[in-house]
Amino acid sequence: MKTPCQLVQQALSQLLRPEALDADTAAQFFSPQYQQHVDGRTLNYAEFLAHLDYLKSQVQQMHLQILAIASNGNTVMTHHRVDVTRHQGTTARLEVLARFECIEGRIISCYEHSRLCDGDTQDRYLGSAMSES
């Protein structure tokens, strides 16, 4: 069984590949009871999957750089950067501080604060964006 740090690191690495932004990949790492608290919003698991679908429709490439990671029991804290290239070629860089809670080999929650370092103002909410449909 993976440690909570390994689980979070692997989840971030896998899900930041646009071809892996899907329900099957998410199910490997996230509990169906998962909640993500980001950008003043709380996403349940279904909304998180809709968020992944939105990212897949908008993003050509993402690059993860974990600056720091630490754990205490089932809690994992990360400080990471994500460089994003959208399909139309525009780019953005976000810096993220996140606290993950892991239970029984799955991520159950994430409390995330992200800051847009570079990019269009619309990219500020890439951490929680979903399609309007």
Commentary on this structure:
Residues 21-108 form the SnoaL-like domain. This is SnoaL-like domain-containing protein. InterPro entries: NTF2-like_dom_sf, SnoaL-like. The protein is α+β, with helices and mostly antiparallel strands and 133 residues long. It has a single domain (4-125), classed as Nuclear Transport Factor 2, Chain: A (Roll), CATH 3.10.450.50. 25% of the residues lie in helices and 48% in strands. The chain has 3 helices and 6 strands; from the N terminus they run ααββαββββ. The protein has a 6-stranded mixed β-sheet with strand order 2-1-6-5-4-3. β5 (91-103) and β6 (106-118) form a beta hairpin. It starts with a helix and ends in a 15-residue tail after the last strand. The model has no long low-confidence stretch (mean pLDDT 93).
* CATH architecture descriptor: Roll
Distinct helical segment count: 3
The main sheet orders its strands as 2-1-6-5-4-3
Which percent band covers the strand fraction? over 45%
Which spans of ≥5 residues are poorly predicted at pLDDT below 50?
A: none
- CATH C-level class: Alpha Beta
- Strand tally is 6
Shape: globular
If you compute it from the alpha carbons, what radius of gyration comes out, rounded to the nearest whole angstrom? 14 Å
Protein name: SnoaL-like domain-containing protein
Domain SnoaL-like: 21-108
